[in-house]
């Protein structure tokens, strides 16, 4: 499914490195979370269901 990302509000982690090598996340998309490379903002975007993204983040926090 193609999602409209024209109103996505992208943000980087507060823990991202000073050289900007990180990902950006947009979580203001209804039912989805979009992820992109901060060095290639016009490049490909991965989208995940909101529930799948939450499980992924919870897994990361638990390890």
From TrEMBL:
Organism domain of life: Bacteria
Stored InterPro entries: DUF397
Pfam family, one: DUF397
Protein name, UniProt field: Uncharacterized protein DUF397
Organism lineage: Bacteria, Bacillati, Actinomycetota, Actinomycetes, Micromonosporales
